[in-house]
Amino acid sequence: MKPAAEPAAPLLAAEGVVLEFKGVRALRGVSFAVRPGELFSIIGPNGAGKTSLLNCVSGRYQPTHGTIDFDGQRISGRSPAIRAHLGIARTFQNLALFAHMSVIDNIKVGRHHLMKKGFLAGGLYWLTGAREEELAHHAAVEEVIDFLEIQAIRNAQAGTLSYGLRKRVELARAVAARPRLLLLDEPMAGMNLEEKEDMARYIHDLSREWGMTIVMIEHDMGVVMDMSDHVMVLNFGEKIAEGLPAEVTAHPQVRAAYLGDEVAR
């Protein structure tokens, strides 16, 4: 009998993460692990600590206590720039695009930290490999533009676009870096039904076809349960449940705290 394969080591692992703001605990000893290729969703009521946790992973906040490891390296205490170089990218709940710049220039910003040739190399464009690097980055950006079907708005000023398209451009900017871990903070918030369906399809394809590991905060329970490999539930900064989508929806604390009596019945 062939022995069962060993489960892959976590790509992201948090242990006992505590986050305090002037004595107020936003996170209370949260631990979880995300394996390579997973789509891991974080759900919970407003104020549960979901975005705070994502900010601890991305480096925007540093945990008061606890540790966060990425691919076996300790990243808690390290800067967002270092985490980006390691392969972590994110989108924000509130759009963070450069409104005066074109769509394609906004997406190129997502690859800025990958540029190896500096100012002096740019002056020797043909001799230092700067041209080849620029072509490679341009090809990567074009691939994302095609994937997210935004060819028609590539030269439009980002600030002139509809909300749904701006959310798609922000996703494009994060994906352009081809991150090993993609953090999505409510990628479908404020969208109409058609926009949500499109965004869900793109995220599903990033997970299944591009093999990207994704941690996503999302309030649409239908989307979360359909797409996720694992789900974690936060309430008042504490983890109250984690597991497969069906296991989480059956958890009595989740029903009481988040899904409500109607679902519980």
Main features:
Rossmann fold, globular, 10 helices, 38% helix, six-stranded mixed sheet, four-stranded antiparallel sheet, single chain
Structure commentary:
With 265 residues, the protein is of the alpha/beta class. The chain has a domain of 148 residues: 3-Layer(aba) Sandwich (Rossmann fold). Helix content is 38%, strand content 22%. It is built from ten helices and ten strands. The strands form two sheets. Strands 6-7-8-3-9-10 form a six-stranded mixed β-sheet, sandwiched between helices. Strand 4 and strand 5 form a beta hairpin. Helix 3 packs parallel to helix 6. The longest helix is centred in the middle third of the chain and has 18 residues. The mean pLDDT is 87.
**Range of strand content:** 15-25%
State the major sheet. 6 strands, mixed
For this structure, the CATH topology of the domain at 1-87 and 179-188 and 215-265 is Rossmann fold
- Overall form: globular
Distance between the termini: 44 Å
CATH superfamily of the domain at 1-87 and 179-188 and 215-265: P-loop containing nucleotide triphosphate hydrolases
Query: CATH architecture of the domain at 1-87 and 179-188 and 215-265, please?
Result: 3-Layer(aba) Sandwich
